[in-house]
Amino acid sequence: MINAAPSLAQGVVASIPSPPISSFQLGPLTIHFYALCIIAGIIAAVFMTNHRLTKRGAEPWVVIDISLLAVPLAIIGARIYHVLTHFDFYFGEGRNPLSALYIWEGGIAIYGALIGGAVGAWLGCRWTGIRFWTFADALAPGLLLAQAMGRFGNWFNQELFGLPTDLPWGLEIAYPNPAWPVGLPEGTLFHPTFLYEVVWNVLGVVVLLWAGRKFHLQWGRLFGLYLIWYSGGRIVWESIRIDPSDIFLGLRTNVWAAILGVILGLVIFFVQKRRHPGYEPSPYVSGREWTAGQAVQSQDTDDFVDVSEPPTSESVEGTATSTPATK
After folding, report:
1. Which alpha helices (DSSP H) does 129-186 contain, by range?
2. Closest to 155 in 3D by CA, of 48, 19, 247, 44
3. Residue 312: exposure state from Cβ atoms within 10 A (0-12, 13-18, ≥19)
4. Which positions ≥6 away from 96 have C-beta within 8 Å?
5. Coil, strand, or helix at residue 96?
6. CA-closest candidate to residue 222, choices 142, 151, 321
7. Which residues are CB-neighbours of 99 under 8 A, at least 6 positions away?
8. What transmembrane ranges does the database entry give (predicted)?
9. Dihedral through CA 4, CA 8, CA 9, CA 13, nearest 10?
């Protein structure tokens, strides 16, 4: 990734090149690396969340049922948030309002995805009987991993970079480029904010996994810690980004969103700690429990007989175990 050639303008001895392409053709289709990064992140988050939920005693792959609602609403929320925070891009003078619907042209926002995804997850949890906060805690590390993987899409698109820099990890951006700041000479290097966020998010995955195990964070407290960690880093990255953004009281909209994210995370963490000092009894709400079992075919008939019985014990973490009945 490191290019030893000197920068054209800065004269530094190393830099990070940007990929020469952002998409490729597959028959009549144009496949964008940005989309592949997001899809890969979603898949990784689903697998990690499934593993964590199953360890708690949930039905294997119940996360798929929840994702069927959460993922589409997250995408819709991400687009709506982007459009509202870049209103003049779509509804200003000479603009085409219908372009607000052209999501394939780019423009989604993570905080909008969190809002839309939370609504979808809540609906999915009511559908499946999974406790919402149990799901949120199970999702938190995988969500950070997905966000880290998705940021590589910005690298492929050569977008959302930071201020000019002469540091050896400065990011090369092709010139000319629609995102190139006016007045800067060709060869200028920029802070690779995508890489900063990747490193921060991956480190956050480790921190969340450790903290969740060490302190038994349940009832949404691990998700609260996720909001604090991610949003705290986002305040810094957003402060050095130079892409166009609406400004309120001297701060970018996403900085304000990140500040609110930290506050919300703190509220969730401490309120839930006070409301629920003990451990979750089950990943399911009362009356909606799922019992692990198996169906075996009777040797005398063609009927399938359920040989499972309710769980006999629960671990400290709330994971239910069951002993098959002998028949």
Report:
1. 132-157
2. 19
3. exposed
4. 90
5. coil
6. 142
7. 90, 105
8. 31-49, 61-81, 101-125, 132-150, 194-212, 219-237, 249-271
9. 10
Residue type (1 letter), 81: Y
Length of the chain in terms of residues written: 327
Q: What are phi and psi of 172, to 5 degrees?
A: -80, 135
* Cα gap 296→107, rounded to integer Å: 51
**Which band of pLDDT confidence, cut at 50, 70 and 90, is reported for residue 301?**
very low
Q: Which of 277, 278, 237 is nearest to 254 (CA)?
A: 237
Binding site residue list: 151
What is the identity of the amino acid at 30?
T
CA gap 73, 299 in Å, rounded: 47
Return the residue matching tokens 């359920």: 306
- A 10 A CB-CB count for 266 gives 14
CA distances from 239 to 89, 149, 249 (A): 21, 21, 14
Q: What is the spatial distance between Cα 128 and Cα 65, in angstroms, rounded to a whole number?
A: 7
**315, 306 Cβ separation under 8 angstroms:** no
The domains of the chain are located at 23-275, 294-327
| Residues 216, 55: Cα–Cα separation, whole Å | 14
Tokens of 234: 């986002």
Between 92 and 138, residue with greater pLDDT: 138
Residue of 277, 288, 141 lying closest to 219 (CA atoms): 277
Q: What is the bridge-based pairing of β-strands 247-248 and 313-314?
A: unpaired
How much helix, strand and coil, in percent to the nearest 5, is found in the chain?
Answer: 55, 10, 35
pLDDT digits (tens, 9 = 90+) for 229-278: 999 999 999 999 999 888 899 999 999 999 999 999 999 999 999 999 99
